[in-house]
Every structure is written in structure tokens, then in C-alpha cells.
Amino acid sequence: MEPLKLHVGSLSSAQKEDRKKMVAALRMNPEIQKLQKKLQFSDGVLEKNTYQLLTWLKGIEKCRGCKGLNACRQKEKGYRSGLRYAGFLQEVVEACPYQVKQMKLEHHRRQYTVADMGDALLQARFEVINLQGEPDDYVRAVQETLACCRKKQGGLLYGPMGAGKTYLGACVANYVALRNGRVAFVHYPSYCERLNNEFRSGEYKEELDRLIFADLLVLDDIGAEEVNDRNRAVLLVILDRRMQDERMTWMTSNADFRALENHFLHTYKGEDRLQCARVMERIRALCRPIFVAHDDRRNLFEQEDV
Q1: What's the CA dihedral at 286, 182, 297, 137 to 10 degrees?
Q2: Which residue did the predictor score with more confidence, 89 or 255?
Q3: What is the mean pLDDT of the chain?
Q4: Looking at the predicted structure, is the pLDDT value of residue 302 above 50?
Q5: What integer is the mean pLDDT of 38-56?
Q6: Is 50 exceeded by the pLDDT of residue 299?
Q7: Do 230 and 263 form a contact (C-beta atoms < 8 A)?
Q8: Residue 6 pLDDT class (50, 70, 90 cuts)
Q9: Theoretical Cys-Cys bridge with 222: which of 79, 145, 163, 188, CB 3.0 to 4.6 Å?
Q10: What dihedral do alpha carbons 213, 217, 220, 226 form, nearest 10°?
Q11: Which segments of 112-228 are extended strands (E)?
Q12: Opening angle at CA 66, ends 63 and 69, nearest 5
């Protein structure tokens, strides 16, 4: 749209005075000051486009005090009038900050091929973890997890119940998803149940491929499932292919390597040292052990909510 041009010479003295006051008021307006700084246009442009800027201010006034998309008062929810400057001011329609955040969240969700996690874990981020006053061991675990994540290395987050292992695993998953990686976050005991229920029909194969070929796989709470020949064999297939393809793999568990080895050794049929050794060889190749020690963080959160 062409800028609105006012022919000052055709205005009466009273109109000129009113316009000077209008321009002066615009210069002092915080929203106009932010816009001028953002778009880098001169005072001359401001003076020539007074009414266009007033119209823009009127449009964004509906956004004042807005608490979110559900409270949006604009004609099209999440979108408002905007301005661009390319030698002249041009009117555009732009997404508001809440809509931008929503679009990023939806894109982030679409990066998950499997998501055994609630909305709270989808919001987990390294940058929101407040390490001030935390024990040194926990700080070290967070820092080591982030460092491995940046290097695209896998890890085994192990430690006592409630220490925050799943949350850190979700931070890893969201870190990759927000950078356009394809992510599978799987609660492993639940996956084993799905596997057993879907094995005869062959439905398990689609999810199996998602776990094998995801840029990042997080197996949450591994070691809590009941081991049988079938799920141990399928786990071996997943880990073997991911190791060959050098795909980033993370696990969370109450068990360390030694305890996991004992876990995979036994089924109701007895011991199978060969299969156990093959599984553990791949876990050790894919995952660096990171001990997560802390008081039960779930209890801490409950106390904060009281």
C-alpha cells in the first residue's frame, strides 16, 4: 500500500497546529518509539505517515493487556495489523507474540514421531532449570547432559526415583525437536506392553521403525519393564541399527550398567547370558552413564505448590 501523503501547504493554520501536536504526541508514544527503532525510519517518515501510524496504534490497542490467544480481541485470532518499512511504510498482517509462540510449539510437537509424555514435559528446557542452590552433583549432571546433547552424544541418566531423570531426558528431546530433529520419546515399560499386544497383528512394526530411524530416541524408565525373549530381541534390533547408523540415543533408569545387565540376564525361562551381553554391549556403545543424584524432586514440587 502506498503511504498516505499529506499536503501540508493546503492545510489551514489551525490544522497545521493540530498536526504538529499530533506528530509531537506520536514521537513521545512508547509504541511508536519501539516501532521506529525496530524499522529504522526517520522522523520525516513519521511526519508524512501520521494517520497511518495512528491507525496502526488503534489496531494494536486491542492487544493491550492481552493474556493469551483465548482472550484475543482481534478480528482474526492471533493476528494484528503491522508495518514494514522499505523506503515507505507498508501495512501488513502479522502474528502476535502469543501466536508466534503457538506456531513454534505446534512445529515442535510435529517433530515427535512418538511422544509418551504430557504437556509439562513438552515444555521442559535446559534454559529454565534454575541451578542456584542445587547440590553440586545435580548441577554436574545437568551440565554433563547438556554438553553431551550439544555434541550429539547419547547418555544413560540413572539414579534414584524422583531425581529428575525423566525431566532431563525430556530436555534432551525438546532440544533436538526445537532444532528440527525427529524425536521418539518412549516410556519403555509402556512400549513393551504395546509390543506384546500388537505383535501378532504386526502393528508394532510401524512404531518400531519410528524408534529405529528417529534422529533421537529416548527410552524412559528402561529396566522397569518385565523382560521376555520378545521384547529383549526387539530392543536388540533397535539398538543394533541405531548403533550402526550412529543415531543419538538416550535412556533413563533407576539402574546403572551393572544393574541393567542383571535385569536383562533373566527371563521367566531362565538366564540368557549371550543375549544379555549383546544388549549391554550396544547400550554401552550408545550411552554415556550420567548419575543424577538429588532429593525426590517430585516431593519438592509438591511442597512448592502448597
Answers
A1: 40
A2: 255
A3: 87
A4: no
A5: 86
A6: no
A7: no
A8: very low
A9: 188
A10: 30
A11: 112-115, 154-158, 183-187, 216-220
A12: 95
- Answer whether 94's CB lies under 8 Å from 79's CB: yes
pLDDT over 70, % of the chain: 92
Distance of CA 47 to the CA centre of its chain: 43
Angle between helices 229-245 and 273-286 (to 10 degrees): 30
Q: Is 242 helix (H, G, I), strand (E, B) or coil?
A: helix
Counting beta carbons within 10 angstroms of the beta carbon of residue 153, is it exposed (0 to 12), middle (13 to 18) or buried (19 or more)? middle
CA 152 to chain centre: 17
2 pLDDT more than 80: no
| Residue 73, pLDDT score | 82
β-pair type (270-271, 216-220): unpaired
CA distances for 179 relative to 125, 165, 173, angstroms: 13, 22, 10
Name, in order, each residue with C-beta under 8 angstroms of 177's C-beta and a sequence gap of 6 or more: 108, 111, 112, 183, 216
- Does residue 239 contact residue 271 with C-beta atoms inside 8 Å? no
Pick from 125, 149, 123: nearest CA to 215: 149
Place of cell 510435529: 110
Residue with cell 533373566: 266
